[in-house]
Design goal:
Strands 1-10-9-6-2-3-5 form a seven-stranded parallel sheet, sandwiched between helices. A three-stranded antiparallel sheet has the order 4-8-7, covered by helices on one side. It has one domain (5-238): Rossmann fold. It is globular, with a radius of gyration of 17 Å. Helix content is 32%, strand content 18%. The chain has helices at 13-30, 45-56, 84-96, 113-126, 163-169, 188-192, 207-215; strands at residues 5-10, 35-38, 66-69, 71-74, 103-104, 132-135, 157-160, 182-185, 196-201, 233-238. The structure holds 2-amino-2-deoxy-6-O-phosphono-alpha-D-glucopyranose (GLP).
Amino acid sequence: MQNNISLHVVANYNELSEKAAELFANAVKLNPTGVYGFATGGTPEGMYEKLTKMSAAKELDMTQITAFNLDEYVPISPSSPQSYAYFMAKNLFDATGVPSQNRNIPKGDAPCPHEESAAYEKKIAACGGIRLQILGIGTNGHIGFNEPSDTFQGQTSYVELAEETILANSRYFDNQDDVPRHAISMGMQTIMMAETLLLLASGETKAEAIRGALVGPITPKVPASVLQLHRNVIVIADKAAAKFL
Ligand code: GLP
């Protein structure tokens, strides 16, 4: 494995959440007004729960950070319980007091998703870029909603979801047909510009994607494999997700 990647293999999901929360909290303590990138999905939920507890215990102050999320479904209303805007409010932002004007998530109900994508990209740049970006990984090696393709997705764009992703994410919807087919996602170039990347993976279903991401050939067929070219990637994986490393 490349030496720009620092891999921490932990016993289980709870240890993963603890380590990720501790690392993130330390970054915020060093830079309480910094710009941080957030991910959604089941993987960071435990980490967010721990950050919420730290904040309640006054061990962490997130009230001055600026947040940018990786992605959002299209079309979806931010008030829909399946939206990533709702997920972030419920799982982290409300309880930790991240001010609403500092919460940036692509608008899933914007009149033009292409314009929304371009504006989002500009806003990240205007805020000086992302200091620490949290990432999960899809079973197909996607990051955000950058799906396997013939080319790497550059900047924030309006994208189409892969069938595998629709199936994986259908657990959050009443039925598979309700899963939006599109999204706005930061591109791999946007993600690669963050100072530090924190990639989290838990469970055997992620083992193949993690192998492809960290030690496989760099290819847009496994979007996460481009992380091998980033200067500072921290990976926290439980034993099950790291079993092919
Ligand atoms: C979703 C999100 C990704 C997330 C991935 C894995 O499609 N767009 O940002 O990393 O799925 O999700 P989970 O953590 O639930 O496995």
